[in-house]
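Subgroup meeting minutes
Present: P.N., E.W., G.H.
Scribe: E.W.

1. P.N. recapped why we're keeping a running log of single-chain structure predictions: easier to compare across weeks, and new members can see raw inputs and outputs side by side.
2. G.H. added today's entry (178 aa).
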Amino acid sequence: MSKQLDRSNPIPDTTVFDGRMSRRGYRLNKLCGSLITPETRAASKADEEAYMTRFGLTAEEKALVRSRDFGGLIHAGLNIYFMLKLGACTSMTLRNYADRKQLPLERVTVRLKHDKMHATDCTECETREGKIDRIEREIELEGILDDAQRARLLDIANKCPVHRTLNSETWIPTRLAG
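Output recorded in log:
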């Protein structure tokens, strides 16, 4: 058996995404997979609690979503969708912009890497204690683009809806009903 699949000897800081994890994260992945349209994203933003309940998330899963604990979400079985969504959304946002502006963009490749870092090591972060999730995004642009066009495309990449959601501060007021 390979070391990667031998659960008695795990690889440090590695979450194996297998059938067990897929089943475990099914509700989270269904929720994330639903966020493909502007209407569903708006519904989620309008009432996140109701939206999470619609997918049957457990109290633990809801807490992970509320706190935007991406490392915890990965360990809960959400391993593929949010990273895929960030990469796909970045690529589509750039493609749509380039087409509208008739820029000579031939191809976009987005590479993502997720890890944890100490909050104190992040000079741009509001969080000052504990560890935070870090998603490194590398964008490769192919085509005959000048420096100004490349800089503008980088700016546009940061406006992709998934990037803005992952990067935004979230306030979730909670109250007891009744």
